[in-house]
Each structure stands twice: as structure tokens, then as C-alpha cells.
Write a structure and sequence with these properties.
By secondary structure, the protein is α+β, with helices and mostly antiparallel strands. The protein folds into 2 domains: 2-61 and 126-138, no CATH class; 70-120, no CATH class. 50% of the residues lie in helices and 13% in strands. The strands form 2 sheets. It has a 3-stranded antiparallel β-sheet with strand order 3-2-4. Strand 2 (24-28) and strand 3 (34-37) form a beta hairpin. It starts with a strand and ends with a strand. InterPro entries: UPF0158. Pfam families: UPF0158 (PF03682).
Length: 139
């Protein structure tokens, strides 16, 4: 089965944004198309359960499934800002950590570096995920 990395990334972003809202994305093994489920989408009620219970569909992971949340932040800090590791750990001890982290990076002119790093690691993780499921990614 084939799909594009850009379509997989888009489905992944939706799945990540909807992870706490009972929304997600599924890849149809037969057609290579993505099916988005959640409030406001065309899929009928109960579609997520039907997709999850079928061998025809593969649930697209979210960032938590691929360890692309807080662990990725700490990897970035260890690579790029090792002297700030304690400060970043403190940031993540309270609510609203990601907004504060981005402010922290912006103040150090590292926000673009973070976005580049996050994107690169996301694509690597998605490629690994797809390969492990026999999905060929085309550009």
C-alpha cells in the first residue's frame, strides 16, 4: 500500500490535535485514503469503533503514541541548550508548559530551531511507523 508522507503527516497532525477530544484518523489499507473521525466530520457516528475493529483500517498515531511530546522537548534541550535543562524541567512542572517553553525559546532565538527539529523528528517517526506496517511512503 502507498500513501504520501504529506498526507500521513496531515492525518497525524489531526490525530495529535484531537487526541484529547475523541477524534482521530485512520488509513484505509485498500484505497490508501485517510478517514478522519470526530465531531464535525462526515463519518457516521460509531465510525471510529468500526474502523478500530476492522483489519482494513490502521489507526494513525498521535504525537503521544510516537513519544513526540515532552520527551522530544527534553531531547532538543539536551542537544541544543544543555545548560538550560533544569530551567526547562521547571517549565514543564506546571500547566501551560508548551506556551512557556516556546516563549523561553523565542527569548533565546531558538524557536525556529525547535520547529525545524520537531518537524524533522516527526517525519522520521512517521517514516519508521509506516515502514513497520508495510506502508510505502511516496513524495
Amino acid at each position: 500500500m502507498k500513501t504520501t508522507i504529506s498526507n500521513l503527516e496531515e492525518a497525524f497532525m489531526f490525530a495529535s490535535a484531537g487526541a484529547d477530544l475523541d477524534a482521530g484518523a485512520y488509513l484505509d489499507r485498500e484505497t490508501g485514503e485517510f478517514r478522519i473521525v470526530g465531531e464535525g466530520f462526515d463519518e457516521p457516528e460509531g465510525a471510529a469503533d468500526a474502523f478500530a475493529g476492522s483489519d482494513r483500517y490502521i489507526r494513525v498515531p498521535n504525537k503521544y503514541d510516537l513519544d513526540l511530546g515532552k520527551a522530544l522537548v527534553f531531547d532538543f534541550v539536551a542537544d541544543q541548550l544543555p545548560d538550560a535543562a533544569d530551567e526547562v524541567r521547571d517549565i514543564f512542572r506546571r500547566r501551560g508548559a508548551y506556551a512557556r517553553f516556546k516563549g523561553f525559546l523565542d527569548a533565546r532565538d531558538q524557536l525556529d530551531a525547535w520547529y525545524d527539529y520537531e518537524h524533522r523528528k516527526t517525519l522520521e517517526a512517521l517514516r519508521d511507523w509506516a515502514e513497520g506496517r508495510g506502508i510505502e511512503l511516496v513524495d
